[in-house]
Each structure stands twice: as C-alpha cells, then as structure tokens.
Amino acid sequence: MQLTRLDIAHLRILEQVRFCPAPGLNLVTGGNGAGKTSLIEAVHLLGYGRSFRGRVRDGLIRSGQPHLELYAEWQDVCARARRAGLRHTGGGWEARIDGAPAPSLTELCAEIAVVTFEPGSHELIGGGAENRRRFLDWALFHVEPEFLPVWRRYARALKQRNALLKRQPAPSALDPWDRELAEAGEALTRMRDGYLRRLEPVLVATAAEFLPELGAAGLRFLPGWRREEQRLADALLLARERDLASGHTAVGPHRADWQVDYLALPGREALSRGQEKLTALACVLAQARAFADDRGEWPLVCLDDLASELDRPHQEQALTAILASGAQVLLTATDAGTLPPALQPERRFHVERGVLREV
Ligand SMILES: Nc1ncnc2c1ncn2[C@@H]1O[C@H](COP(=O)(O)OP(=O)(O)OP(=O)(O)O)[C@@H](O)[C@H]1O
How far is the C-alpha of 60 from the C-alpha of 53, rounded, in Å? Predict the structure, then answer.
C-alpha cells in the first residue's frame, strides 16, 4: 500500500494536521517534543488499532479534547484508491472503510500494513514474550486467512478455562475446555511454527547484513509447552492439578516465545543494547521482506528517530536496503543533516509545536 494522505485531529500535540507523503522516503524533522513520534503513532494506529506508547487513556487524545480522529487515503496493491476513518471518543474505537462502517478495527488493520521501528523496539528482543507473540501474530494475521478464527477460538477457550479454574471445579469439568484449547492451540502453533520457518532464512540474511560479527543467526521457536515430547492435550492434563491450585492455565500457545540465536553469543543476555536494537531492526525488516514475498508489496515502514537509535553506518545500511525495495518510508529526525546525499528524501516535512508543514 501507499499512503497518500493522513488527516490527524487531536492526537497528543497534533491539533489538526494534514500529512501527504510521497511514495519513497519521507523525512519529518522537528525538535524534541514537537510531534514527530505522534505522527508515526497516528500511522501505527491505523495499522494496529493501538499505540506503541501505551493505552488511549495514557494521553493519546489531546488534553481538553473529547476525541481523536484519523482519516487516511491510500492506494492498494491493485492501485485502487481507498479511504478509511478512525475515531476514538474515549469509550472505544469506531472505524469506517471506503465510506461504510467497519464491524471492528480488525477490518481496518487488515487493509493497512505498517511496520514500525521506534526507540522502544529493542523490547522485541530484550522485553517480555508478549512482544514477540504479537510480532508473530501480526504477520500471520496478514498472510494466513485461517489465523484469526483460530486465534479467537483459542483466546475464548483460554478465558473460559481460566474462569472455571478460579471456581475450583471438579477436574472433569475442565475436559471440554481442554479439548477446545488443545485443538485450537495445536492449529495456532502449527501456523506460528510454519511462519518462523519461512522467516528464518530471511532473518539470517538480514541479520548477516547488520551484525556480521555475531555469526549466522537462527530462530528458535518455544511453543509454550514441551511440544517435541507431548501433544498439547496431554500437557494440559499433566498440568491440571497445578492449574487448579494456581487458578490459571500454565501451558499452551499463550506462553509461546521465540528467540534469535547467534553462533558467537551464549544467549540474548549477552547482546549489548545497540546489538539488541540492530537485532530488533533485522527482525522488523525480515518481517517486512517476508510480508512482501507473500503479498507482493512492502508494508509502510515507519522509522522513528533512527539517528538516535543506530550509528551512522547502520542507519545508512538500513535505509539503503529498505529504499531499494521500493517501500514507502516515514523517517523522523531532530535535524536533516544526518542523511547522506545518496539517501535524499522525496518529500520533507517539518513539525513545530504540533504544526506540520512541507519544506
Ligand atoms: N494528551 C496530550 N495533550 C497535549 N499534548 C500532549 C499530550 N500527550 C503528549 N503531549 C505533548 O506532545 C508532545 C509529544 O510529542 P512527540 O513525542 O511526538 O515529540 P517528538 O517530536 O517525537 O519528540 P522527541 O524528539 O523528544 O522524541 C510533547 O510536547 C508532549 O508534551
């Protein structure tokens, strides 16, 4: 997809902004607190229905305003003109696509594929497993039509089983939920496993570009139970007594994780903060490349404050690789002086106290 227009109303410091990016590299400059990340946040919201900076109640809606609104126009992979609106009134999200109400945010997020690399992205490697499950599930959501119903089925069964566990039931009362959880959980895990197997060679190649000194990388999938030894149904049965005592389900895909392994390092704890960031960037770019292999086009790539995240050679390397793919890129920086002549933006913007203008 290619974003052609984004109107933003009442998002953090952004009061009323119209942003019309070009197809290639778009650079948005501005001082600290000017509104650069807020702009990236608006694009990310369209693609994920959530911010990477906490929940709506953490200040996403501009102070003193009852709601925030986004309106986007883009060209899809068939060069059709599309449009969508997103509004949060404090109570919840409402979305419209091509003039009609969308039943849920899911429909909007399915249309707008965005990958974001921002100062918190190192959490993908160094943070909790939830970040890494979300990463996996984003890709499956976009490329695997069976994913969403299976994921929903699993989430519903897990919620029901956990609610039942808290009521101290007779153990046999768990049987139907265990069957449901096992069936949906095995299917979900096959998809996650399959995706990581497809992603691995792409990631190995990408990580070799950014971190050749650490040796070839591999991806290890941790499915959430000892899958190589037992089926999920058996793992749930074995854990039943413990689950009844704790009141929650200890095994299953809701505990899944994955990690990047380097030959030259004993584990991810040995990565420096910079190496963690580069590994996260390699994962995000590999995900975008794998998406392009499946869908025939790159997602929109948002890079927030790359200059403060990576050293200059790595910034240039990343930008060169992304731009060679023909992707549309939104890059923010505190000043324009950091880009080499070969990577000049197609369109430049400057934001000051929430007011954006093309320069
Ligand atoms: N709910 C809100 N209402 C009004 N202003 C807000 C709200 N939340 C945050 N802000 C302001 O919005 C600005 C945040 O902007 P943003 O994080 O986009 O800046 P930035 O240009 O990325 O800055 P930096 O370079 O420091 O990361 C800050 O000035 C902050 O005080």
Answer: 8
- Tell me 91's DSSP state: S
Domains of the chain listed by start with CATH number: 1-113+299-359 (3.40.50.300), 131-295 (1.20.1050.90)
Residue whose Cα lies nearest atom 14 of ligand 1: it is 33
Q: Which atom of ligand 1 is nearest to the CA of 40?
A: 18
CA of 18 to the centre of ligand 1 (A): 17
Q: Which residues are annotated as a binding site for ATP?
A: 30-37
List the chain pLDDT tens, one digit each, 359 residues.
899 999 999 999 999 999 999 999 999 999 999 999 999 999 999 999 988 887 877 789 999 999 999 999 999 989 999 999 999 987 889 999 999 999 889 999 999 999 999 999 999 999 999 999 999 999 999 999 999 999 999 999 999 999 999 998 999 999 999 999 999 999 999 999 999 999 999 999 999 888 888 887 799 999 999 999 999 999 999 999 999 999 999 999 999 999 998 887 777 677 888 889 999 999 999 999 999 999 999 999 999 998 887 888 888 888 998 998 889 999 999 987 777 777 889 999 999 999 999 99
Token reading at 59: 């200040």
Q: Which residue has the tokens 């003193």?
A: 64
For the CA of 60, the closest atom of ligand 1 is 1
